Amino acid sequence: MKNVLGLRCIECKKEVPSEAGTYTCPSCGSKGGIMDVIYDYQEINRMTTREQVTNSKDNSIFRYLPFLPIHPESARPHLRVGWSPLYKPQGLGKSLGMSNLYIKDDGQNPTASLKDRASIIAVIRAVEEKAPTVAASSTGNAASSLAGSAAAMGIKSVIFVPSRAPQGKIAQLLIFGATVISVQGSYEDTFRLSAEAIDRFGWYNRNAAINPYLVEGKKTVALEIAEQLNWEVPDWVILSVGDGCTIAGVWKGFMDLYSAGWIDRLPKIAGVQSTGCCPLVDAFLEDRPWTPKEENTIADSIAVGVPRNPDKALNAVRESGGTMVAVSDEAILDAMRELGRTSGIFGEPAGVTGTAGLKVLLEKGIIGADEKVVSIVTGNGLKDVQNAIKAVGEPIKVEPSLKELLVKLEGKI
């Protein structure tokens, strides 16, 4: 891959070649050593131009192939991942008093979450490295996305999920033919067991906090936002945070575009967690190292008490001049209702946590009502209908009688 120069450790800055089996820094060892993919931006600009991308008819993440760490000739799944819609919902903007609000609905991906962007890179890299099985731990969305991409690629998947994972996500895993391991413990327990099993069986590791190539798939959401706004970067991009990999990917995407000369400025990044599980928000606001937290939130996809990519996440927010905020589960349910009723967009709890945080940042005056803001909805509400019903309540129940209907509708419409 002429566009990839190698990998760089975010801790010690050591650079190593991009080779099969190399994921973490060999120098940092047990201390961590999470890596970043580094690119030759001159080579990227030789391979393509901004105008060529704008005119591309490939409505997937592969319109940005020169920005990705895969061989151009490698086999790819047939699934259409990426190029999700960027809406400017007037109703939600009016409700929040904003004149320039956009919603990026990544629940429109094949398995209904942003995680498809990472998983499709994982299965391509697995086949490139001749690995017959891919594996990961997940609170749900990464799991279903990996299972779907693996099925489309014709390889096996083994998925570890905590016992609290919603049934909608478990159903996806089983439908896609994955071997599903429900770990009777926390996400930390789940991650640890998956890591031990991956080492024992030699499966390809899809865990985004270990595998540096997965963030490269996630960053394509930022590339799309920039292109869909005619390469005019928003003032703010806001999204939910769990492990920290997605927010790191968003920042990496904008940094890559800036380094290649495709955009002339960078956005501020705002990360949002639930007050029931906010280790990174607390660390950011108190300017201290993060500490583990309980996983006590309805937003299962971001219920990560021991984040595996904290440094990249915190670096993204700090380097961008952005901020972080925590919101209650009730605020998350309220955001589900408001987003649905004012824009017709159905997000799961973790998917709308960014929008819930936006309301808080507006109230505090940190984000201005006239600033251009993109809030990313990271997952579809059909993944967690139990909490959707909790947000909106039960339907009106009537006997097949117009008289009774009129009584029960009084004052409601």
Describe the structure.
40% of the residues lie in helices and 15% in strands. The chain is α/β, with parallel strands linked by helices and 413 residues long. A 6-stranded mixed sheet has the order 4-5-13-10-11-12, with helices on both faces. A 4-stranded parallel sheet has the order 8-7-6-9, sandwiched between helices. The radius of gyration is 21 Å and the shape is globular. It catalyses: O-phospho-L-homoserine + H2O = L-threonine + phosphate.
Oligomeric state as shown: single chain
Fraction of helical residues? 25-40%
Q: Main sheet: which strands, in order across? A: 4-5-13-10-11-12
N-to-C SSE series?
EEEHHEHEHEHEHEHEHHEHEHHEHHEHH
First-residue to last-residue Cα separation: 60 Å
Percentage of residues in strands: 5-15%
CATH domain class name of the domain at 86-112 and 214-392: Alpha Beta
Largest sheet: 6 strands, mixed
Total E-strand runs = 13
* CATH architecture label name of the domain at 86-112 and 214-392: 3-Layer(aba) Sandwich
Overall SS class: alpha/beta
Outline, from the CA principal axes?
globular
Output mean pLDDT.
94
Q: Which spans of ≥5 residues are poorly predicted at pLDDT below 50?
A: none
CATH topology annotation of the domain at 86-112 and 214-392: Rossmann fold
The Cα radius of gyration reads: 21 Å
Number of helices: 16
